[in-house]
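Format is chain and fold; as here:
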Amino acid sequence: MLIARRVFQDAPNHQLSTLVKYTNINSDGQFHRALYDAEMTAKLWLVMLDNINQRCMI
């Protein structure tokens, strides 16, 4: 969450479901299931890494 707060400062909040919607990750909305939350977290992590790479490449 700390990284998400830095990368997505304009997000309305930093809950997993909000960040998934904010980054346009495809989701069927079954949050609070362990496997689903883990999958969405992994997808969000990849989006954050891509965002960081784009910011750092000059």
Notes: Residues 2-56 form one domain. The radius of gyration is 12 Å. The chain has one domain: 2-56. DSSP finds three helices and no strands in the chain.
